[in-house]
Amino acid sequence: MNGLSLSAKILIGLGLGVFTGLFVGEPAAILQPVADVYIRMMQMTVLPYLITSLVVAFGALDADEAKRLAVRAGILLLVVWTATVLVLVAMPWTFPAYDSASFFSHSLVETRKPFSLTDIYFTSNPFASLSQNVVPAVVLFSCLMGIGLIGLKEKESLLAPLRTWNKAIVRITMFVIHLTPYGVFAIGAVSAGTMDPQTLSRLEAYFIVFAVAAMLLAFVILPFLVTAVTPFRYREVAGIARDALLTAFVANSAFIVLPILVERSKELMERHGLLDETADSAAEVMIPVMFNFPNAGKLLTLLFVPFAAWLAGSPLATSDFSTLVSAGIPSYFAKAQIALPFLLDLFGLPADLFQLYIPTTIITGKFDSMVTAMNLLVFALLGAGALSGFLVFQRDRLLKAAAGIVGSVVLSVIVLRLLLALVVDTNYTMDEAIRHMHRNTLSTETIVHRELPSAGHSSAIGSSALGNAQARGTLRIGYDPQNLPMSFFNANGDLVGFDVELSEQMAHALGLRAEFVPISWPDLPGMLEQGVIDVMPGVWYRPFWFSSLLLSKPYFTATIGLAVPDDRRHDFDTRDRIRNQKGLKIGVPLDQTQIEYSLEYYFGGTDTEFITIEFWAPYFKGEHPEADAFIMPAEHAAAWTLLHPEYTVVVPQPRPVRVPTAFGVAPGANELARVIDEWIVYAGNVGLIDQGYDYWVTGQGAQTSGPRWSIMRNVLGWGE
Q1: What is the per-residue DSSP string for 238-305?
Q2: For 438-550+669-689, which CATH superfamily applies?
Q3: Which of 466, 712, 682 is nearest to 555 (CA)?
Q4: Are both 6-423 and 556-660 of the same fold?
Q5: Alpha-carbon distance values, 327 to 126, 571, 666 (Å)
Q6: Mind listing the pLDDT tens digit for each residue in 68-96?
Q7: Global pTM value
Q8: Rounded to an integer, what distance in angstroms lies between the CA atom of residue 219 and that of residue 371?
Q9: Which CATH number describes the domain made up of 6-423?
Q10: Contact between 184 and 10 (Cβ < 8 Å)
């Protein structure tokens, strides 16, 4: 191994990691701490290096150099960024449409601060921005610090130790880089061993789209920018770049080809008799200086954000790309290891998706290095032309270049869309995942009634609810058969769900058999009063119930959300967007007085019409097409979207509405309420509630019917 290059070692580490994950399956998760440590070590030195590098880079300039660089380089950067943004916006259209849904995630309901350019760029406390990884604010502060040093006679006394500091950070970074084969091994093993096969297969889409985008930039868009305004022809630009691009691709680094790019740019200018002292100096300065700025190669990795959104089933809206660009470009003054977690959080995407990014860099890193090399060559040629005056702006040449760029992008999008539709697995299986959920605590003594009981089933009115239950030997528990994921019948015909499992455990703790009785929500108070049921789980803390029920301590807190068609998710993701819409029709369960506060919070002051629907099942089955959305707990909505992936759940920001949920008993059943309260405290302390919540609501361990496929188990038969 000692004689191998680092790239070869990384490829070997990735290959061994993937094989290990496929071989052992789920036990590969034991390597997750190793993967986490590696990622954090990669991130550890980036921001300190970024700050000192920018301070030194700007502080070392004199005033005239700074002005010339600001004007010329600024224009070049804007041109290249614009071209790159064109690709970033176009490429996500190639991802094939597919039905997608997922179990409830806490990231869905976390209060997120609305995006604000002022907040991410301007800070009253740069150290707070540093600790919170707000990269744009850190970049701006560092640039201003460097600019502040320009013209100061004493600046070298600060710049010298900062250069030494940077050298030390580089040494630490190089040490971490040499650990990459081991970090990639751990990440590859965990991903291959625990990730579902569909997710792994869909990474193909990212690789293909990224490669095509890189080829567009390196061989079409960037060279056309040069040929549009210089005397150079496309074949000449491509010819002098060939060796450098190939070397950068193979070595996975554009840094090592900087000298080659400088010499090749001078060679081309000399061939046309354009190489003078100014052009020579421009080539020497532009390439190393611009290497430290976000270039097309670096920015291309922003494609991972719309890919992650597509993979999570929440594709970015067209309007989101302005946020992606305005927040993403300054973030890439740092490395992707810092920028991408910040951007995933900005768009409310699961943070663990970032782990998918690290292994992909083994392949995508070669393409972005190639694009970076071409980008730097373009900087050198256009910068030299701007300073020496050999740029030519002719309408015909500009139109021809623009047509070539736009035509190439459009054709690539069309072809890729058709290709990915064929190669990417778009089969939907999450509906089967929820249908096959089951209880490990199912007791053979549990009684489940599928029909409303007869009048003779009732207990004597006025007697003790707890005493009646003890006399019968059963605790009668109400349930709604369509209340996913709290109570529903699975594919085997068993009554299952979060509330079902908790209620059965509570009955067992009281020394009673669990007896489940279907209920009608409008009749619930009467059913409790008459003893048809003793207790009803899943009752919201709302004024609607206070006068007719006695509620236990909360055992669960739901978050009010909206179930909406997939193509309208962005119409409801903030309170402001909701209130700016006219003539909305919103479905509400039972009586809207139950959720009066939520309705006022989200829709107050609008001309919204509310449509009472008996329960949420008819809405998801398409029986109320007039309703634009249905207001309901996000936890419930997420489960229903598993069966109906054409819908999604949205929790409007900011400050989502929370609703405590409890067990309801008849007024006067104080003894039973006291016993339930005591059990809730016990169940919370021993973890019963958390275990049930993790399985039934967030789907942990529920997405496969058995152990993850592995060579060890399924091929060799070990460990069965």
Answers
A1: HHHHHHHHHHHHHHT-SGGGHHHHHHHHHHHHHHTT---HHHHHHHHHHHHHHTTS--HHHHHGGGHH
A2: Periplasmic binding protein-like II (3.40.190.10)
A3: 682
A4: no
A5: 17, 22, 55
A6: 666 766 787 888 888 888 998 999 898 88
A7: 0.66
A8: 9
A9: 1.10.3860
A10: yes
